[in-house]
Design brief:
7 strands, 4-stranded mixed sheet, about 220 residues, alpha+beta
Length: about 220
């Protein structure tokens, strides 16, 4: 939903302020920010894998903020991650008695980080799991919000952002205005999360680690 707002801002700026700016063709881009003592720790990482724990295809995603620590980052090799493998094995329930002693230690780790929960002698996957073919349905609501919900707010933000970019970005980099906008949007996710915590609508996980922000899609 945060991305829906950001996309609306970008669309508005592109149409009203930067439509005449010619895009540059570059082989790659590198950009960043000086934190000035403030680290924007939010991100969204995902990994794909094949033929792990009886599933032909797997997609695991992880959204994190300053309140929710990352479980993993891009580049994770699921074939070497035993806690996630246990989460895959426990989708339909996993009997603790079937685990080796080494696996039981990893299971305890998976419980502590929010991948698993225990009911009696059974372990179950705690994070959200969906069929890979249904993954896009997770975004149906937020995609509908991209039209008709954020336009007025996006226009106010776009006016301020465009002025800031024209004032601060040198002419030879104006074609890269989208990157400046994306950098400016970094605090948005954290700001929304903090506001929802203050309103009592969200509760951050203890020590920043839990089931929050992590989910996976699987295909047999």
């Amino acid at each position: 939903m945060v991305d829906s707002l950001i996309k609306n801002v970008e669309k508005d700026m592109e149409e009203r302020y930067f439509s005449r700016i010619q895009k540059k063709k570059r082989p790659f881009y590198v950009y960043g920010y000086i934190d000035n003592g403030k680290y924007f720790g939010s991100g969204w990482d995902g990994v794909n894998a094949e033929n792990v724990c009886g599933y032909s295809k797997i997609r695991v995603d992880n959204i994190y903020t300053t309140q929710v620590r990352a479980h993993f980052h891009c580049g994770l090799n699921l074939a070497n991650d035993i806690p996630i493998q246990l989460a895959l094995r426990a989708i339909d329930g996993l009997n603790i008695g079937s685990l080796t002693e080494a696996e039981k230690e990893y299971a305890a780790m998976a419980v502590s980080c929010g991948y698993l929960y225990r009911e009696g002698e059974m372990l179950y996957t705690k994070i959200l799991v969906n069929r890979l073919c249904d993954s896009e349905k997770l975004y149906d609501i937020s995609q509908r919000l991209e039209k008709g919900c954020f336009e007025k707010t996006a226009r106010i933000i776009a006016d301020k952002m465009a002025k800031l970019i024209y004032d601060c970005v040198p002419d030879y980099l104006l074609s890269e205005w989208k990157f400046a906008n994306r950098l400016a949007s970094l605090p948005v996710i954290d700001s929304v999360v903090e506001a929802l915590i203050e309103k009592g609508m969200l509760v951050p996980p203890e020590d920043g680690v839990g089931a929050e922000g992590c989910w996976m899609g699987v295909e047999k």
